[in-house]
Amino acid sequence: MDPIVYVALGMVLAAGIAGVASSFGVGIAGAAAAGAVAEDEKNFKNALILEGLPMTQSIYGLITLFLIAMVSGILAGGFRFADATQENIIKSVILLGAGLTVGLTGLSAIPQGIIASASIGAVAKNPKTFTQGVIFAAMAETMAIFGLVGALILIVTGVGF
Amino acid sequence: MEVNTITRILDTTLVVVFTWIAYKTGSMIYKYTPYSYPNARIRAMEARLFTGQRFDELAESKTLNNFVMNLEDSDYKPYLDKLSIYTAETIEGAFDEALADTYSLMFKILPKRVSLFFRLLLEEWDVRNVVAIVKAKLYGEVARDYIAELGTMVDKIKAMAEAKTMEEILVILEGTEYEETYHKLLLKEITLEEFETELYRMHYAKLLRYARSRKDEERKILEEFVKLKIDRINLMTILRAKLHKLEADKIRPFLIPGGSLNQRTLNILIHVEDLSMALAELDSTRYGEIAREVREELEKGNLDAFNRALERFTRRKIKELTRFYPLSVAVPLNYILAKESEIRKLKAIAKLIEDRIKPEDIKAIVGELP
């Protein structure tokens, strides 16, 4: 494949996988939120906060997309690795790896949505468990943050601005 | 290595990794997403279940009117509002309707792959009602007093309760799964006790068949639930028989297959000489803990204590499953058990208030109910 394909794939996968995962995560937690609110409107505030947690992965994906586009020159209107030399392919693959790292770790939005969904249930039963619920759901976020940090290191050290 | 080779390896790796991820993600979504809405809703409903304090307050009601007024802010209000007079019987009817609606709600909101189980659970009330009516008719009592307006064939049950002859009941049961067994009873091919056991056997066989047709944790949870129910019936049958010093051959036909106690344990239990030995034998099973807990009461011949302990054990086990599997069918099962318990207590309070029992005594009686 040409270097442009790897770079484009890196951008698409970072924002795409993380975005899809976020939408599933929010969907799962949102269904739970609807269930909790159907029984008692007072659950709305707590449910809304928990429901929003899986959205962050899509933001990491978007940040990565812009970074890859910037370092590869696409954002500036050109493409730095157009020639299929070994060096350019390696750099393109590094960018694909960075995108893939964020995209795959962004899949943590789905289990985060599942945790948030269970937490919404727990909070609906006992509102005092809200903080614990947020902490449990936020734990899944760690993987996405690791992924973003890893991708930044890959981009900066492997390709450079 | 050539550039082409490197890119080919990369492409293949990407395809393999993505296929695996898509499969794993898909199965995770399939497994949990359908429980998201119902379980959060059920948890919110759990928050409204009555506490011990609330039962104590209700027990303080001086009349049934006060009792109904104290339930104004509860989920039972719409059902109680329909009543024109307040008697223990009419209030019980309202509670039965509320319970029937709870089953229907579970059937409606749970994923299709498990919802039918709740319809099957509702059929247990059909079995209870059919048995109660037949018993009442045979003993010359008013059948209406023994039925709950709950189940999948309430109209037939009411018609059966009003039936003037036993043959009329057969006509009403025509086309149902109980017809053949009832026919045998009428022809005196089986006794009343055998008739009752056979209906329960058919019902639990159906529940088990359904549970075993599910997959993974759904199968595990549903099977555990049914097995706990079967064990409860079998243990009560055996202990009651041992209390009356019945022989093993007379107990065996009344056991229901499929529980978690294996055939060997059941055989030993029915062959032991008396209740104390049966309890000693239970010690090595999962029910050892509760056998020890109520041993004194049991040896005095109080089987109710063991029955209550078994009910509490079932609820504890299902509650444990809800902790292991928060997004699973364990949550609605736990809720149904809790709701049944709540309604049992409310019915008891209503009856005791009508009988003018002192609030302290009502609290004591209701406090002991599982």
TrEMBL record, chain A:
<feature type="transmembrane region" description="Helical">
    <location>
        <begin position="57"/>
        <end position="81"/>
    </location>
</feature>
<protein>
    <submittedName>
        <fullName>V-type ATP synthase subunit K</fullName>
    </submittedName>
</protein>
<dbReference type="GO" id="GO:0015078">
    <property type="term" value="F:proton transmembrane transporter activity"/>
</dbReference>
<keyword id="KW-0812">Transmembrane</keyword>
<feature type="transmembrane region" description="Helical">
    <location>
        <begin position="134"/>
        <end position="156"/>
    </location>
</feature>
<feature type="transmembrane region" description="Helical">
    <location>
        <begin position="93"/>
        <end position="114"/>
    </location>
</feature>
<dbReference type="InterPro" id="IPR035921">
    <property type="entry name" value="F/V-ATP_Csub_sf"/>
</dbReference>
<dbReference type="InterPro" id="IPR002379">
    <property type="entry name" value="ATPase_proteolipid_c-like_dom"/>
</dbReference>
<keyword id="KW-0406">Ion transport</keyword>
<keyword id="KW-0472">Membrane</keyword>
<keyword id="KW-0813">Transport</keyword>
<comment type="similarity">
    <text>Belongs to the V-ATPase proteolipid subunit family.</text>
</comment>
<feature type="domain" description="V-ATPase proteolipid subunit C-like">
    <location>
        <begin position="9"/>
        <end position="68"/>
    </location>
</feature>
<keyword id="KW-1133">Transmembrane helix</keyword>
<feature type="domain" description="V-ATPase proteolipid subunit C-like">
    <location>
        <begin position="96"/>
        <end position="154"/>
    </location>
</feature>
<dbReference type="Pfam" id="PF00137">
    <property type="entry name" value="ATP-synt_C"/>
</dbReference>
<dbReference type="GO" id="GO:0033177">
    <property type="term" value="C:proton-transporting two-sector ATPase complex, proton-transporting domain"/>
</dbReference>
From TrEMBL, chain B:
<dbReference type="InterPro" id="IPR035067">
    <property type="entry name" value="V-type_ATPase_csu/dsu"/>
</dbReference>
<dbReference type="InterPro" id="IPR036079">
    <property type="entry name" value="ATPase_csu/dsu_sf"/>
</dbReference>
<keyword id="KW-1003">Cell membrane</keyword>
<comment type="subunit">
    <text>Has multiple subunits with at least A(3), B(3), C, D, E, F, H, I and proteolipid K(x).</text>
</comment>
<keyword id="KW-0406">Ion transport</keyword>
<protein>
    <recommendedName>
        <fullName>A-type ATP synthase subunit C</fullName>
    </recommendedName>
</protein>
<dbReference type="InterPro" id="IPR044911">
    <property type="entry name" value="V-type_ATPase_csu/dsu_dom_3"/>
</dbReference>
<comment type="function">
    <text>Component of the A-type ATP synthase that produces ATP from ADP in the presence of a proton gradient across the membrane.</text>
</comment>
<dbReference type="GO" id="GO:0033179">
    <property type="term" value="C:proton-transporting V-type ATPase, V0 domain"/>
</dbReference>
<dbReference type="GO" id="GO:0005886">
    <property type="term" value="C:plasma membrane"/>
</dbReference>
<keyword id="KW-0472">Membrane</keyword>
<dbReference type="GO" id="GO:0005524">
    <property type="term" value="F:ATP binding"/>
</dbReference>
<dbReference type="Pfam" id="PF01992">
    <property type="entry name" value="vATP-synt_AC39"/>
</dbReference>
<dbReference type="GO" id="GO:0042777">
    <property type="term" value="P:proton motive force-driven plasma membrane ATP synthesis"/>
</dbReference>
<dbReference type="InterPro" id="IPR002843">
    <property type="entry name" value="ATPase_V0-cplx_csu/dsu"/>
</dbReference>
<keyword id="KW-0375">Hydrogen ion transport</keyword>
<dbReference type="GO" id="GO:0046961">
    <property type="term" value="F:proton-transporting ATPase activity, rotational mechanism"/>
</dbReference>
<keyword id="KW-0813">Transport</keyword>
<keyword id="KW-0066">ATP synthesis</keyword>
<dbReference type="GO" id="GO:0046933">
    <property type="term" value="F:proton-transporting ATP synthase activity, rotational mechanism"/>
</dbReference>
<comment type="similarity">
    <text>Belongs to the V-ATPase V0D/AC39 subunit family.</text>
</comment>
<dbReference type="InterPro" id="IPR014272">
    <property type="entry name" value="ATPase_V0-cplx_csu"/>
</dbReference>
